[in-house]
Amino acid sequence: MIAAVLLAALATACALGAWRLAFAKWPWRAPRSAILLWQSLGVTWGLASVGALLAYALQPYGGGVLYGLRSFTESAVLFGMGHGLLQPYGVPRMGALVAGLMLLAVLVAVLLAAGTQTFRARRRHRLLLSLIARDDPGVPGVRVVDHPGAAAYCLPGLRSEVVVSAGTLSLLSRDELTAVLAHEAAHARERHDLVLLPFTALTWALPWVSVVRNAQSSVALLVEMAADDRARRYCSPRRLATALLRFGSAGAVPAPDGTLGAGSDHVMARVNRLVKPGPALPRRARYALVTFSVLLSVSAPLLWLYPH
């Protein structure tokens, strides 16, 4: 029962931590470290929630969640053959077992469904680009689509592509275009699409939970800020801020499904951060944040092994 209580407390702490983190501003000072913390909170909440239900249900086996699942499977087989007594017995434990397995199945299913839909959308769009996009010697390595609207986005994958519209080429100055392309290249290099995928899937599974929606929105903003920080190494922050404002005033075309676009929500927050950057989070604080995130991530799996 101790493991079930600890896992339930851990799941509650992760939910409360996510609620507080969604409204905090300090993550803007260290977006990469904050993204790692968000990932740790999400994974730990899922494993702790499932583990708390299973730990209570499988407590009669006395060997932890993983051992209890194996023992329950063996007893179920024997029970089906007419031998032995199926445990856990009683309605509460059987209900907890069913609820835990269903929650685990839902979390895995929505993650696979979100990934499948995203990858299919990318495959379709990649095929479309092969038909309508062209290369431009003025922007080597970038695919150009002849569209008058302002659009710039990254199509992630094993062969990531950065795409801009003809309207973008005419809208932005050379320096601004360099800044936008550096931003999109950062998305491709750091695979921010994979960072967002679990949070998108969780939003599918629990769309009515405000904490989940706020988490997805917060991580999406941090991903953009992380790409902004990477782009600042190769261009002027003010040029990137100006490019974002130009996109906003020109009514940027929404990025296609499965891609990461330059125009997004919270543009003014990003612009203010680029124009008036605050002090970065101290290195010791970032290291402590990473260490805490790693320890938090391993806590739930260890409790799954904790014997009852």
Unreliable residue stretches: none
Report the major sheet.
Answer: 5 strands, mixed
How far apart are the first and last residues' alpha carbons, in Å?
6 Å
* Helical segment count: 11
For the residues shown, what is the average pLDDT? 86
Spatial sequence of strands, sheet with the most strands: 1-2-4-3-5
Structural class: mainly alpha
How many domain modules? 1
Question: Radius of gyration, Cα only, in angstroms?
Answer: 24 Å
Please report the total strand number as a whole number.
Answer: 5
Principal-axes geometry comes out as elongated
- What is the element string, with H for helices and E for strands? HHHHEEEEHHHHHEHH
Protein name: Integral membrane protein
Cofactor: Zn(2+)
Family: Belongs to the peptidase M48 family.
InterPro entries: Beta-lactam_resp_regulator, Peptidase_M48
Would you write up a description of this structure?
- Pfam families: Peptidase_M48.
- Keywords: Hydrolase, Membrane, Metal-binding, Metalloprotease, Protease, Transmembrane, Transmembrane helix, Zinc.
- Belongs to the peptidase M48 family.
- With 308 residues, the chain is mainly alpha-helical.
- It has one domain (2-279, 293-305).
- The chain is built from eleven helices and five strands; from the N terminus they run H-H-H-H-E-E-E-E-H-H-H-H-H-E-H-H.
- The protein has helices spanning 2-22, 31-57, 65-80, 91-132, 166-171, 174-190, 192-205, 210-231, 237-250, 267-275, 283-305, and strands at residues 134-135, 142-145, 152-155, 161-165, 260-261.
- The chain has a five-stranded mixed beta sheet with strand order 1-2-4-3-5, with helices on both faces.
- Helix 1 (2-22) runs antiparallel to helix 2 and helix 6 (174-190) packs across helix 8 (210-231).
- It is elongated and about 70 Å long.
- It starts with a helix and ends with a helix.
